[in-house]
Write a structure and sequence with these properties.
alpha+beta; two-stranded antiparallel ribbon; two-stranded antiparallel sheet; 3 helices; 16 strands; 25% strand; rod-shaped; receptor
């Protein structure tokens, strides 16, 4: 009985001095877990932007946690302490919950888990679709994701005009067919030389027939 009583006293003592997150306390000094404090002089909690581990024995940093040195961010992998905040290191971005720093995707069709991994290099018009980085609908990739402009759409440069044989007219700033091509009713461009080429072929055949007939 005395043994059980002693164990009970030790358990209550441990809870009183705040050995783990969730223990009772009166002062911040009662909370022994690093990066914890006594919330409302009642219970030990992790500081802002720190999260308790499942066993409540540690407080781990999240993106945005206050820091004085890199050590304060050591529980957040691939992070660094910049201007008193734990931020993701170069080449990494925070996940949607700011609980981890994940690698930046390397471009179109790269592996991803969330949009921000793609947008770092591919721009705001990219998205993570089926765990692959893709441009949004009606956009195409050219170093970054840009809106796809069709025949007759306004444009600023040739890269915006997406389609075969299109270019941006610098006079009216619209996507037009390149020289030597003409617009079709389907909104595409076709070779303007096609018709004249067929006429030339027929003329050549006619001349060959004449030469054979008259023994030229």
């Amino acid at each position: 009985v005395n043994y059980l009583l002693l164990v009970g006293i030790l358990v209550q003592f441990n809870r009183a001095i705040g050995l783990v997150i969730g223990d009772s306390c009166r002062y911040d000094s009662d909370c022994f877990v690093e990066q914890s404090y006594c919330h409302m002089q009642q219970i030990c909690e992790c500081k802002e932007n720190f999260l308790p581990t499942s066993d409540h024995q540690y407080c781990v940093a999240t993106v945005g946690a206050i820091c004085n040195s890199k050590h304060d961010c050591s529980t957040l992998e691939n992070s660094i302490c910049i201007e008193d905040r734990c931020l993701c290191s170069k080449g990494y971005v925070p996940d949607p919950h700011n609980s981890a720093c994940r690698p930046v995707a390397q471009g179109e069709n790269s592996d991803c888990d969330f949009d921000a991994q793609c947008q770092q290099l591919m721009g705001e018009f990219s998205t993570c679709t089926r765990r692959r980085c893709q441009c949004l609908p009606n956009h195409h990739f050219l170093g970054t994701c840009i809106r796809s402009k069709g025949l007759g759409d306004t444009c600023k440069n040739n890269t915006e005009c997406f389609g075969n044989f299109l270019q941006c007219s610098m006079t009216d700033h619209r996507c037009v067919c390149r020289p030597g091509y003409s617009a079709t009713s389907q909104g595409t461009c076709k070779s303007a030389a096609g018709a004249s080429s067929r006429i030339s072929d027929l003329l050549l055949i006619f001349l060959v027939i004449l030469s054979i007939h008259f023994n030229f």
